[in-house]
Structure formats: structure tokens, C-alpha cells
Amino acid sequence: MPISICHVVGARPNFMKAAPVMRALASYSSVRQILVHTGQHYDVNMSDVFFQQLGMPAPDVNLQVGSGSHAQQTAAIMSQFGPVVTEKKPSLVMVYGDVNSTIAAALVSAKLGIPVAHVEAGLRSFDRTMPEEINRVLTDQISDLLFTPSEDGNRNLAREGISADRVHLVGNVMIDTLVRMLPHARVPDIDLPPRYILVTLHRPSNVDDLPWLEQLLQTLAVLSDHAPVLFPVHPRTAKALNDLPKRVGAEQVRLLEPLPYLPFLALLQKASLVITDSGGIQEETTFLGIPCLAVRENTERPITVEYGTNLLVGRDLDLLREAAHRILGGEKKQGRVPALWDGRAAERIAEIVSSR
Ligand code: UD1
């Protein structure tokens, strides 16, 4: 009996997670795959360019839901994904990460009796003010197969009563993509200083709080006296920056358009320091051994702090400045790469899924 798998992606961080899984499953003749894009992210630089660079097939279905409140976005995905599942009748729906597309697709599938596999299961920040934390907890509860990137994920799932026979520790699929693409990383077409700080910020807790965003920008401007600051700006952040009454610091910081995968990877690899609130970038810097300061009070990826090069600076701007000065002065935390972050996580997933 052929197995038909429906992969659902929607937002930028989903694409580099689904790509290696689809690739690994393509070598199984018993597996048919379809790809659904919810359209949560739709700008060329947030979506299409990733499909091209990662060598992903064009989606079979694009739900084109676009932006909206969490309720609107989640509801739109659910109401449009339902008929797709009913028509295609997949034997398994695979969802990725923790975005609204993840929970929406999982919920529809579970209620239609279609088994759900969650890639990147078990991560917990224990902070329910983060929309992603709600998405993680709920998706894991209704998934039949849970693929974790690290041991802490298995422990979290056990604590939430999820039976161990549904959980598989496979490693980190995002690192699979990084390992495959690293030789192709190319520096973007910008005037690149020999030493620089790379910044990304997009979490609502940082960018929707305008007075705080202003303080962060001023701190980055101060740091730019020590090393140029390059800041590719997410659309959510771009809107917030436009809403700032004063953009003190914006002239010193080099604000860039969102970057495609390969140029961003090249910038990451050569950065002296990364300042971010992204989950994925905390993992990528850990793998690459690049110092990372996370402007977050908690992380669902504690392994990047325990093993990796990551330090949480929370909302303490003095700590951010001091830690940045130390790192730029050559004081580097020696990290190590967690087990199973070896470029082969998707192969392990494909083996499990295809033998069901
Ligand atoms: C979403 C995810 C977040 C992930 C992030 C990566 C949820 C709850 N959040 O956050 O976990 O880290 O993606 O980028 O799913 N916009 C555009 N063009 C686009 C996409 C968005 O202009 O292609 C703008 C819209 O104004 C939109 C805003 O960005 O309202 C936010 O987009 P949305 O998908 O709601 O959340 P993200 O902040 O991107």
C-alpha cells in the first residue's frame, strides 16, 4: 500500500524544516507526497525565494490566507485546509515547528481522523504569553508521531503525559538544511565590513512594544561604535520601526531587506556576534560556534544555552552591552554541537514514517 503524506508549511521557518524531510522521503518508492502552503507568509523574500534556494517543489496547493489576527489567520487556514484533507485523503499529515499554520493544520487533521506527525516536537519555553508556546503544547497533544530535536523535548513530552512510543528523538532538521546548504552560502551583494554584528528581531515581545524597540535600537547604535551592525528587517519589525515617533539610532544601524536563505547563512557564518530573538538562529549559531545573545527572557531551546554559544540577555540592556563588549573583545564561550545535530535527522524521520 502506498503511503500518501501531506506536508503543511506556511511561515519562513517552516521551509528549511520541511525541505530535508521531503527530500529524504522522495527516495522511498512507496511514498507519495503533496505540499500545502498556507500562505501565512507570502512576500517573495519571506517565501518564494526559500523554495527556490532550498530546491523545494512548488506547493501543490496554496491556501493564500495571508496576514490577520491569530484568530483570523488560524481560522482561515482551518476552514481552507479542511476540504483539501477531505479531498486528498492523505495517510499522514506532517506539520513543522510552532507557527499558526502548524496548529491549524494539525487540528483539522486530527478531527478528520488523519494521523499527524509533528517535526520539532517537545520544545517548551514554559511561557504561555508566547503564541508559539500555545501552538507547541496543543500540536503535541494531538499528534500521533512526535519527532524531537533533543532529549529535553522527550522529557517535556513525558511530563505532559504523551506516551513514549509516539515520540522519536531524531535530531534537528533545521541543521540538516544548514549542513547541506553551507557550501553554497554566498555573501549578499552589500558592502560587507570585515567584522560586524548581525541582528534579527521580530518577536511581538520586542517589536510590538515601541518604547522597548526604541531602546533596543539605541543600544544597537551604541554597539555600532565598536562593530558595524547589520540588521535584515522582518516585515513585522519594518512596520513597527515606521511607527516609532523618533528613530534614534536608525542611521547608525544598517537596516536591510529580509534576506534569502543563502546570503543570510553567509552573513551568519562570518559574524563576530549575533543578536537575535529567533529560535532557529539560536540553533544555527550553536552549530556554527558563533556567539549569540538572545533578546529573550526564556528559550524553548535551552540546549543552545547549556551546550551552545547562546546567552539569554532578557530585557537587560546593560547585560546586552556588556556581553557584546566582552565577545567583541575576544571572550568567546566555547560551545559544542548537541547529539544528532548531524545533518541526518530527516533520514531518520523518513525511515520511521515509511515503515509505519
Ligand atoms: C510568524 C510566526 C513566528 C515565526 C515567524 C517567522 C506565528 C504565531 N508566528 O511570525 O513564530 O518566528 O513567523 O517569521 O505563527 N508580513 C508581511 N509579509 C509576509 C508575512 C508577514 O508583510 O510575507 C507582515 C504582516 O504585516 C503580518 C506580520 O508581518 O501581519 C506578521 O506576520 P505573521 O505571519 O502574523 O507573524 P510573524 O511575526 O511573521
- Shape, please? globular
Backbone CA Rg: 20 Å
The span between the termini is: 11 Å
Poorly predicted runs? none
Describe this entry's structure for a reader:
The protein has helices at 12-25, 48-54, 70-88, 100-111, 131-141, 151-159, 173-181, 204-207, 210-223, 235-243, 261-270, 279-288, 303-306, 317-328, 345-354; strands at residues 3-9, 31-37, 61-62, 92-96, 116-119, 145-148, 167-169, 197-200, 229-232, 254-256, 273-276, 292-294, 310-312. It has 356 residues and is of the alpha/beta class. Helix 1 packs across helix 15 (345-354). The structure holds uridine-diphosphate-N-acetylglucosamine. The site of uridine-diphosphate-N-acetylglucosamine (UD1) has 19 residues, from helix 1, helix 5 and helix 10. The site of uridine-diphosphate-N-acetylglucosamine has 19 residues, from helix 1, helix 5 and helix 10.
Provide keyphrases for this structure.
356 residues; alpha/beta; 7-stranded parallel beta sheet; 6-stranded parallel beta sheet; 15 helices; 13 strands; globular; binds uridine-diphosphate-N-acetylglucosamine
What does this entry show, briefly?
The chain has 356 residues and is α/β, with parallel strands linked by helices. The protein contains 15 helices and 13 strands. The model has no long low-confidence stretch (mean pLDDT 97).
Fold blueprint:
Blueprint: E1 3-9, H1 12-25, E2 31-37, H2 48-54, E3 61-62, H3 70-88, E4 92-96, H4 100-111, E5 116-119, H5 131-141, E6 145-148, H6 151-159, E7 167-169, H7 173-181, E8 197-200, H8 204-207, H9 210-223, E9 229-232, H10 235-243, E10 254-256, H11 261-270, E11 273-276, H12 279-288, E12 292-294, H13 303-306, E13 310-312, H14 317-328, H15 345-354
Parallel strand pairs: 1-2, 1-4, 2-3, 4-5, 5-6, 6-7, 8-9, 8-11, 9-10, 11-12, 12-13
Helix pairs in contact: 1-7, 1-15, 3-4, 4-5, 9-14
